[in-house]
Amino acid sequence: MTGMMNPIQSAAPHAQSRYGGEGYETVVVSSGEARDFIALLKPRVMSLVVFTALTGMVVAHGTIHPVLAFAALLAIAVGAGASGCLNMWYDADIDAVMSRTAKRPIPAGKITPSEALAFGMTLSVGSVLFLGLVANWLAAGLLAFTIFFYAVIYSMWLKRWTPQNIVIGGAAGAFPPMIGQAAVTGAVTLDTVILFAIIFIWTPPHFWALALVKSGDYARAGVPMLPNVRGPDETRRQILFYTLLLAPVGVLPALSGFGGMLYLGVSVATGAWMLLLAARVYRRRDGDAAAKACWSLFGFSIVYLFGLFAVLIAEHGFGLMMPVMGG
């Protein structure tokens, strides 16, 4: 029927005509609301960035005024949101054909790509400058590099080029503890390098567990995720390998002195459970049991990371530190 309109068309930014001096020109008017622009910032990812950056601040050997600490965290959060926005702008074509992402603001037609690009660039520049002014330029430089790494190196290159995209690209999500420490002390030490390593090694098993379930989405979008390129069996082996590496690395804060007895207990227990779930993913390869194993690992991996960093915040921020072996 000629009067019918598909859902994407009906939700799309609409065009209006106006007189431009030499004739009428078409102007695209966005239908986006405030919540749509917030969605561009990937709030759930932003919350993880803020949490890990706060941990970097708390374990830092230095002091910062609470107001400046809050301002620095706000800048880091906005920078993380800017990265997500630029990622959504570049990946709009991929998002449109994946069930998990088809309702994002750009493929849903609520925000135009040009608006998303302008929004992301404005927040990127603003967050870096603001962090430099309220903290220091080392922290600002690390934030700028993180935005560049995620938006350009990962989104524009790695994601569409190599099945190791998540492994290398995971560095973008691992920098916030270092940025947080740098904001307090103007330096980066081994403590937050270890936190970087934990997040970096955690990312592949976390994301590949999801990729195993959503491999059809990535195949339709032409994204070379590991399950589509190397197969699900190899992906399961890689998940188990990285989890075997993650479990001991997760204990390092306690062994290096900036995590206490509480951290040691939590990291050992949750690391063992991560290994058990990864082993289940490795063994269960067919049907609902395989999908359930993947979802269990994906869900618990989030609890694992938040748990480790929450314990560090509790030990340093609330006086719960009991050094390992009396160190």
Could you describe the largest sheet, including whether it forms a barrel? 2 strands, antiparallel
Q: How many structural domains are formed by the residues?
A: 2
Strand order of the largest sheet: 1-2
**Total count of helical runs of at least 4 residues:** 17
CATH homologous superfamily assignment of the largest domain: UbiA prenyltransferase
Total number of β-strand segments?
2
Level of helix content?
over 70%
Assembly classification = single chain
CATH first level of the largest domain: Mainly Alpha
Q: Which of globular, elongated, flat, extended, rod-shaped describes the shape?
A: flat
Pfam family, one: UbiA
Keywords: Cell membrane, Heme biosynthesis, Membrane, Transferase, Transmembrane, Transmembrane helix
Pathway: Porphyrin-containing compound metabolism; heme O biosynthesis; heme O from protoheme: step 1/1
Membrane topology: Multi-pass membrane protein
Summarize the structure in words.
The chain folds into two domains: 34-188, UbiA prenyltransferase (Tetracycline Repressor, domain 2), CATH 1.10.357; 209-327, no CATH class. 72% of the residues lie in helices and 4% in strands. It has helices at residues 7-11, 34-40, 43-59, 66-90, 92-95, 113-134, 137-161, 165-169, 171-174, 176-185, 190-213, 215-221, 226-229, 232-249, 252-256, 261-283, 287-317, and strands spanning 14-19, 24-29. The chain is flat, with a radius of gyration of 22 Å. The protein starts with 6 loop residues before the first helix and ends in a 10-residue tail after the last helix. Mean pLDDT is 90; it is low at 1-12 and 14-27.
